Amino acid sequence: MSSVKVSFYGHVRQYHNLKSEIDSAIHEVLESGSYVMGPKVKQFEQDLAAYCHAKQAVGVNSGTDALWLVMMALGIGPGDEVITTSNTFFATAEAIWIAGATAVFVDCDPRTCNIDVSLIEAAITSKTKAIVPVHLYGQPAEMRAVAEVARKHKLFVIEDNAQALGARGPDFRLGELSDAMCTSFIIQKNLGCFGDGGAVVTNRADIAEAVLRLRNHGSAKRSIHSMGYNSRLDDLHAAVLSVKLRQLDNWNDRRRSFAGKYDEGLKGTSLKLPTALAGYRHIYHLYAVETEGRDLLQEYLKLRDIIALTHYPIAIHQQEGFPWGRGARIAGSLKNAEVSAARVLSLPMFPELTGEELQTVIDAVVAWDRENQGRGTKAKGQGAQR
Ligand SMILES: Cc1ncc(COP(=O)(O)O)c(C=O)c1O
Fold first, then answer.
1. Measuring CA to CA, which residue among 134, 124, 118 is closest to residue 81?
2. Which numbered atom of ligand 1 lies nearest the CA of 95?
3. Cα–Cα distance, 138 to 157 (Å, whole number)
4. What is the pLDDT of residues 278-330, one digit of tens each?
5. Which protein residues are within 6 Å of ligand 1, measured from CB?
6. Which of 37, 55, 138, 292 has the most Cβ atoms closer than 10 angstroms to its Cβ?
């Protein structure tokens, strides 16, 4: 058995690789005395907007806040429906509920686990106000099709881009075909700070202006308030994020190259491997495989000191107590989301992963697959029925 331990994240390695730049950015903030809504937040907002080729970025306290503050800015609330998927992190739906609206779930495309764009139109009612596509695992949703349905039915599009900053479609950038794009900087994201953080990226000045006010107790000018909240990004996080943003493309390239190695090493196994759509720049926030033997494989890897995690093992509509008195509607079958929840397993994927660690994971997964095939247990993935 290999003596190499493989963790799921490389946060501390990432810090060590950038230690002098990060330490000096933090030190500068500490010495400045400007810790909240100071110059580092403004600078990072400019950096992020430029990176996304967008007109504006507004820092907020989390990806969840980014989503529901945009909904508030657009006047989405009680009585309105918002279409999204159920196989996403809980916060996507939670944000809809915080805004007071009803979450409507359509199924995902089994190839990508992103929203099945062919199902959106049938889920639209007179109450529908917006679509929230999620760029799950680092691959953009099919935004041209989403934008086309939205245009036809006069709906807003709010991108949940907590997982794909730096990804692209074949002929579109993320944030380009929507009203606003929301991202998260919690440490495990491709661009992560040392705590909670998020941002709204938009080309619409009215949305940016509304979120700027909403995030700061409804105030754009000292002592003048309308209804708002406290959801600010701190300068310490912003300073770190500006340093890290300069590395994001390199980090994403490394993730893509590791994904290529996983694809190559695992191609003969029974696992369903991630599908990158032609022309899409998938940035592998997660390398999520699927197998009916998911729990067995996860345990097998754990016994060999390899950490693999599940994203997400319970679809939102299958959570206990769903929808907790909140409004929700299931539009058609969510079979693909349910199958994915039961089978998905994310293998270690972070830019600081070493070649030896990657090979250790590949060898262990291949060995498990061979043993399970030999025993005839249910480890089928690729050919399994949906
Ligand atoms: C798809 C998705 N949406 C929303 C969020 C919420 O972001 P945050 O944790 O910063 O609130 C996350 C991440 O946690 C996420 O992965």
1. 124
2. 4
3. 18
4. 999 999 999 999 999 999 999 999 999 999 999 999 999 999 999 999 999 99
5. 62-64, 88-89, 91-92, 134, 160, 162-163, 184, 186, 196, 198
6. 138
Listed residue (239, 206, 259) closest to 72, CA to CA: 206
State which of 9, 60, 62, 64 you would mutate to test the pocket of ligand 1, scoring each by most atoms of that ligand within 8 A of its C-beta: 64
Distance 30 CA to ligand 1 centre (A): 28
Domain-wise residue ranges, the chain: 11-245, 249-375
Ligand 1 center–CA 149 separation, angstroms:
25
Tens of pLDDT along 225-276? 999 999 999 999 999 999 999 999 999 999 999 999 999 999 999 999 999 9
For 92-102, the pLDDT digits (tens) are 999 999 999 99
Whole-angstrom Cα distance, residue 239 to residue 230? Answer: 20
- What the block records as the tokens of 36 is 């909240």
Given this chain, do its domains 11-245 and 249-375 carry the same CATH topology? no
Ligand 1 probe mutation, 186, 188, 191, most atoms within 8 A of CB: 186
- Residue count of the chain, please give it: 386
Q: Are strands 198-202 and 56-60 parallel, antiparallel or unpaired?
A: antiparallel
Beta bridge partners of 36: 234
- Between CA 303 and CA 258 the distance in angstroms is 23
Right CATH for 11-245 from 3.30.470.20, 3.40.640.10, 3.40.50.300, 3.30.565.10: 3.40.640.10
CATH class of the domain comprising 249-375? alpha beta
Q: Residue 185 Cα, ligand 1 centroid: separation in angstroms?
A: 8
